[in-house]
Amino acid sequence: MKATPDFTRNLTEPRALKSFILSTLTVACTLLACVPLFSVLYVLVIRGGKRFSLELFTALPPTALDTGGGIGNAIVGTLVMVGIASLIAVPFGILAAIFLAEFGQDTRIATIARFSAKTMTGIPSILAGVFAYAAVVMVTGTYSAVAGGIALSLLMLPTVMLTAEESIRMVPRIMREAAVGMGCTPSQVMWKVTLPAAMPGMITGVMLAVARAAGETAPLLFTALFSDYWIFQGGAGDLMEPTASLAVLIYNFSGMPFENQIELAWAASLVLVLMVLFLNITSRLISQRKR
Questions:
Q1: Which DSSP category does 280 fall into?
Q2: Of 67, 38, 32, 63, whose CA–CA distance to 51 is shortest?
Q3: Which of 87, 225, 207 lies closest to 145, judged by CA?
Q4: Claim: this prediction has a pTM higher than 0.70
Q5: Would you say residue 29 lies in a domain?
Q6: Dihedral pair phi/psi, residue 244, rounded to 5°
Q7: Are the C-beta atoms of 159 and 122 separated by less than 8 Å?
Q8: How many domains is the chain built from?
Q9: Of 109, 122, 158, 218, which residue has the fewest beta carbons closer than 10 angstroms?
Q10: Distance between CA atoms of residues 185 and 103, nearest Å
Q11: 176 in a domain, yes or no?
Q12: Which among 127, 129, 119, 113 has a CA at the least distance from the CA of 164?
């Protein structure tokens, strides 16, 4: 009878020892990389969690010597400006992705568009704020939520476009060919076959872009500035007025010499991190469901 081979790991063998050392180093480096993340989360929960209350989400920021107060207007302002940015970036990004992936993938325009989008993903966010300041704030004569939304849309657009293009490319060609064989026109293939199949990946890209835009500070300093009041107090016209945001509130309050404002900055930081964390986890779950 043949002897049963022994598959147990023997660390005296060079290959097994090398594999064990590299695996140990990989695990150690992974744990080391997680230390800053969990340290930040721990500090935010300890410092910002103690101010969590209904007042934090419903009250306006306090003045210099006041106690209490909240960040309600900053939360609403952040949601409004990110919503404006999404209304601009998502449709244009998806339409551009459809052109790049299906109808003009080998054209010179497509090559230039891809290169420009990949370049924009690496530009400093402050440049988007400077551009929006020159193009919107100086033209309208006022800081506003619209200007902030346009600045954030410039940061979201390349992420949405590139991820949507990749998602469309990943749809199996046999699905398109089957639809064409059934008599579908190119537009019907796109809207009824390709886009529904690519939708999970596209939603993931949109959520990642939204998560990035929600945490940006520099573009909003140039475009939306800040406000101590609620948006929409006077109707939709308030979109053309200075608007509060979580990122700018953290920037302003963290440098003040008042303990109350510093505590609110910690609480706002925790709220912002939880918002971004929620979006990232949601995008990850959608991506896993797609696979």
A1: H
A2: 67
A3: 225
A4: yes
A5: no
A6: -75, 155
A7: no
A8: 1
A9: 122
A10: 13
A11: no
A12: 113
- Which structural domain range is residue 82 located in? 70-170+199-290
pLDDT tens sequence for the chain (291 residues) = 555 555 566 666 777 778 888 889 999 999 999 998 889 889 989 988 888 888 889 889 988 778 888 999 999 999 999 999 999 999 999 999 999 888 877 788 888 988 989 888 888 899 999 999 999 999 999 999 999 999 999 999 999 999 999 988 888 888 888 888 888 888 888 888 888 888 888 888 898 899 889 889 999 999 999 988 888 776 655 788 999 999 999 999 988 888 999 999 999 999 999 988 888 888 778 767 655
Determine the residue type at 249.
Answer: L
Q: Which two tokens stand for residue 102?
A: 């299906």
Q: Report residue 283 as tokens.
A: 């995008």
Tokens of 246: 């979580």
For residue 107, give the CATH number of its domain.
Answer: 1.10.3720.10
Q: CA 270, 274, 278: angle at the middle one, nearest 5? A: 175
Asked if 228 contacts 9 with a C-beta cutoff of 8 angstroms, the reply is no
**Which pair of tokens denotes residue 98?**
């459809």
Q: Secondary structure of 104-156 in the HEC alphabet?
A: CCCCHHHHHHHHHHHHHCCCCHHHHHHHHHHHHHHHHCCCCHHHHHHHHHHHH
Query: What residues contact 259, with CB distance under 8 A and at least 6 apart?
Result: none
User: Which residue from 218, 202, 209, 196 is spatially nearest to 279, judged by alpha carbons?
Assistant: 209
* Residue 194 lies inside a defined structural domain of this protein: no
Joined together, the tokens standing for residue 40 give 């930040």
Q: Which two tokens stand for residue 99?
A: 């052109």
Distance, CA of 142 to chain centre? 26
Contacts of residue 171, defined as CB under 8 A and 6 or more positions apart, other chains included, come to 193, 194, 197, 198
Q: 32 lies in a domain? A: no
Q: How far apart are CA 213 and CA 194, in angstroms?
A: 28
